[in-house]
Model the fold of this input.
Amino acid sequence: MIYQRVALIGLGLIASSMAHAMRAGGLAGEIVGYAQSPETRAVAKELFCDRVTASAAEAVQGADLVVLAVPVGAMGAIAAEIGPHLKPGATVTDVGSVKQAVVDAVAPHLPEGVHFIPGHPMAGTEYSGPRSGFATLYQNRWWLLTPPEGCDPKALARLRSLIEGMGAKVDLLEVGHHDLVVAVVSHVPHAIAYTMVGVADHMRRVSQSEVIKYSAAGFRDFTRIAASDPTMWRDVFLTNKDAVLDILGRFAEELFVLQRAIRMGDGEHLHAYFTRTREIRRGIIEAGQDTAAPDFGRVAPAPKGG
Amino acid sequence: MIYQRVALIGLGLIASSMAHAMRAGGLAGEIVGYAQSPETRAVAKELFCDRVTASAAEAVQGADLVVLAVPVGAMGAIAAEIGPHLKPGATVTDVGSVKQAVVDAVAPHLPEGVHFIPGHPMAGTEYSGPRSGFATLYQNRWWLLTPPEGCDPKALARLRSLIEGMGAKVDLLEVGHHDLVVAVVSHVPHAIAYTMVGVADHMRRVSQSEVIKYSAAGFRDFTRIAASDPTMWRDVFLTNKDAVLDILGRFAEELFVLQRAIRMGDGEHLHAYFTRTREIRRGIIEAGQDTAAPDFGRVAPAPKGG
Done:
C-alpha cells in the first residue's frame, strides 16, 4: 500500500480508471470520491469508491493524496475550496493535459507543507464518464510529471511508485516544455482537424452530402479527431494559448512552402518532403506508441452498462 | 460473363483485386495482364491472370475492356502506346484518383469508335503490389465514373454491370466536380497531415525523440496518413493542382479565423465551432463510410506470401 487514503476530485474516465488500477494493485487503503453530479457519485460508490462525499472539501480531509481530475478550467475554484482542508504533508496532483495554466490556478491556494506535483497521464479512450474506467488504461502509457523546483524528493518518489504501480511509465518535464510538446503532438493536430472539417462543412460548390458520401481515408480520420469533446478542447486552447499559437504559426509557414511547391509543380521537392515524413511514422511504430496492425491496436472496452 | 477479354495494364493492389473479383463473379472470359516488371508479371500469372504479355500493346489486342491501373503520371505514355492496337468498339477505363489530368493525357491518343470512360474506385488498403489484391476489396465501396458528354449508353451500362458485379456502388460525376470533391475528402487532408509531421520534424526546441516518444492521438493519426506512398502523392498534387490549391486557400482562411479566436480567448466561438464539426462525424458514421467501433472496421488481409 502506497497511500492510506486517496481522494479523487472529479470521477470520469481518468479518475475511475485510477481507482480500478489502485484497487487491482492494492495501492491505496481507502478511495474517497467527489463529483459535482449526484448521479456520478452514486455510480462511483457502486463501482469503485469506498466512500463518496457531498463536497470536495469533505473528500480531501485526512487524505494523503488528492487527485484533481476535473476540466482544466475548473481547477482553480476546486483548489480554493480544498486548500484550507488539506492534511499537512499531503500530496496534491492533477491530470490536466495543460500544465502551466494548472500551476497558475492551483498553486496559490495550497498551504505551506502540502506537496503539489502536477501530472498528465497520456491515455484515454473515446468514452467518458464514471462507467468508462478500467484497470489497465495506464498499462505501458506515459504519465508525465512536472514537479516544481525544490519539490520534496520523498513525496515525488511516492507518487511515482503509485503511478508505476498502475502500470504507467513516468517521465519528468519542465512545465513550459511539457506544454510545447503536447501542443505539437496533440493540440495543434486537433486544431487542424477541426479546421479541415469546418472547411468541408461550408463548402458551397461541393455539397456536404457528397463530402460525407465519398468520405475517404484522410478526411474520415480528421472527422474522428474532430469529434472530441468540445468543452475539453475549448479549455485546452484557451489555457495552452501561447504554445498552440507558436506551433500554429510554424504550421502556417510550412503549409505555404508546400502550397508553393504544388503551385510551381516542383515534383522533386514534394517527393523528398513526403519521403522524409515517412521516417517519423517508422519511429513512432518502433517507439511502441502505435502499431502497424490493421486495427491499430485500439481496442477499448465499452462502458459498463447501467 | 460481361466482357470476353479484359486487359489490365498495371498489376498492383487495384488491378489484382479486380482480377480476383472478376474471377469470383465469373465476369470476364479471359484476363490478360501487363506490368513493367517481369517479377510482377510472374506473380500475376501465378495468382490471377490467364495470360501476361511483354508489352502493353500486346495485352490490349482483342480486349473488350482495357483498364489503365498505372500511376496518373504514367497514363499518357501508356495511352500513346496502346492507342493503335485497341479493338474497335472496345471500352477503355482507368482507376486514377484524379480525373481531369487523366482525360487530358489519355483521350487524345484513343481512336474513334473506342469508348473512354474514366473511373475512380474509392477503396484501398495499406498494402500494395500484385500479392496484395483480394476479391472483396470493392464490396460496398464507391466507384466513381466520369463519362464524357455523348458517352455511349450501352458501353457505360456494361462497365457499370462489371463494377457492380464486383460489389461496388457506382455514381456518375462531372470530371471537374470529381476532382474538387476528392481534393476535400482526401488530397488536402493528406497535404495537411504531411505538413504537420514536417513541422514536428524540424522543431528545434522540441526534440524529435520527445515528439515520437509522447506521440498521442492526433499526431499519431497524422503520421499514419503521412506515411502513404510518396510517388503516388507527388502525382496527385501535381495533377490535381487547381482543386488542391483552391481548397488549401479556404483551409488557410479558416485556420486564421480559429487562430484569432484562440488569440482573443473567444471560448464561445471555439465551443460552437467544435460542436458543429461533431455533426459531420455523425453523418459519416450514419452514411456507413466509417464505424464507431474501436478497431474502426479496418481489417485488411495481409499480402499473400511468396
In short: Strands of chain B lie at 3-9, 28-34, 51-52, 65-68, 91-94, 115-116, 119-121, 142-145, 169-172. Residues 80 and 108 of chain B are 8 Å apart (CA to CA). Chain B has two domains: 3-173, 177-286.
